[in-house]
Amino acid sequence: MEMNAHYTSFVAVGDSFTEGMSDGLPDGSYRGWADLLAARLAARTPGFRYANLAVRGKLIGQIADDQAGPAAAMGADLVTMVGGLNDVLRPTCDVAQVCERFSAAAAVLARGGGQLVLMRSPGRQGPVLERFRPRMEELYAHIDAVAARHGALVVDLYASRALADPRMWADDRLHLNAEGHRRVAEAVWQTLGFGAENDWDAPLPPAVAPGWRARRSADARFAREHLVPWISRRLTGRSSGDGRPAKRPALLPYDG
After folding, report:
1. Residue 226: pLDDT over 60
2. Where are the transmembrane segments (predicted)?
3. pTM of the predicted protein model
4. pLDDT for the residue 45
């Protein structure tokens, strides 16, 4: 239903999902759903301002400590937060503590006065997800409760069958590809009450199953290029976002 909401500014906080990995641009940077959403909102409102404080690899405690306060201080009339998934996908995790830090971050953002949007992040099909599904669902139930407390909107990407399709995911099997991000932008757009441009959850055409050799080659490449480096970072306490600045640290006019 069209709500005719008028947003003049948007700030996004979170991790790699909101930074835009792996919707790559020719210059090596990432675009992602938040940039796509900002572009559509800017097309409706001259002088529209946008900030994106997201940094890949950040845990919910870092989002709460480093991003929530600055984002709230910007006074944007639209704020999105996605976080906690990096925590629950770690080998050990205190889900109750993750939920507590998520609540704290949401409370700070809600005090900023803008429309708060939270998400139940999508999950890729496969055996790895099954191990972490109970943690994810505990976090997502908490997100629903937090949203009800603050009058926030929730975009339920976790229930999407289309976004669970492996073809929506990049080679690292952790981040959405360009089509996945485009669909997330459309899902948020519709949740905000704007008219649908398309069915963001429409299933892809039936897939042609790759042969055994192609699957083994893809698995080996994934392990070499993505899985082994990820495990190494976990074992050494490093993060892909260490030392990396926010994507768009200031609330400035959107310039495409």
Report:
1. no
2. none
3. 0.89
4. 96
